[in-house]
Amino acid sequence: MNTKSSKTRTLILATAIPKCEKEPLLKCIQIEEGILHSKIEGNRLVIQYDLDQTSLHELLLKIKPLLETSGIKLNDNFINKLKIKFICFIETNQRDNINNPSGWHLRLQNIYLGLVDHALENREIKATSWTKSLNKD
Fold first, then answer.
1. Can you tell me the distance from the alpha carbon of 115 to that of 110, in angstroms, rounded to the nearest whole number?
2. Hey, is 42 helix, strand or coil?
3. pLDDT value at position 129?
4. Would you call 117 helix, strand, or coil by DSSP?
5. In this predicted model, which residue has the larger pLDDT, 59 or 19?
6. 10 with 46: CB under 8 angstroms?
7. Among 29, 53, 54, 125, fewest CB within 10 Å belongs to which?
8. What angle do CA 34, 30, 11 make, to 5 degrees?
9. Is residue 3's pLDDT more than 50?
10. For residue 38, what are the β-bridge partners?
11. Looking at the DSSP assignment, which residues form a beta bridge with residue 49?
12. What residues contact 26, with CB distance under 8 A and at least 6 apart?
């Protein structure tokens, strides 16, 4: 699996951008930490960012004021908010996987083994207390 492609994400915002605001907006966005590349294609603002350095949530917190000062309003309807929350959830899991080289399968395996060990310990405790009660008689 190519780790570089899994760490690079692309945000595409489709909105009307005034011509006079394009260059200053791109310069302001490009200096933000974690942004690899930004460009404007027609009415779309395309931003590539590194998931190791920033996330969609952090990116939107950084660029939303820049967009608003340029006169660009983001559509905050329910569906868009839901999409953003879902992408943020996915990115959180991806960042956890990037930071944990062993991956989720080993985490789940350890959780399962821990539960099995816990169940076995409880069974042994019950068995020993039962045999002790038998030995008292």
1. 9
2. coil
3. 56
4. helix
5. 59
6. yes
7. 125
8. 65
9. no
10. 47
11. 9, 35
12. 38, 39, 40
In whole angstroms, what is the distance from residue 8 CA to residue 36 CA? 9
Looking at 5-120, which runs of residues are DSSP E strands?
Answer: 8-14, 35-41, 44-50
How sure is the predictor about 103, in pLDDT bands with cuts at 50, 70 and 90?
Answer: low
C-alpha distance from residue 76 to each of 29, 58, 83 (Å): 20, 17, 11
The yes-or-no verdict on residue 11 having pLDDT over 60 is yes
Distances from the Cα of 125 to the Cαs of 25, 105, 113, in angstroms? 67, 30, 18
User: Mean pLDDT over residues 45-72, rounded?
Assistant: 85
pLDDT exceeds 60 at position 1: no
DSSP tag of 43: T
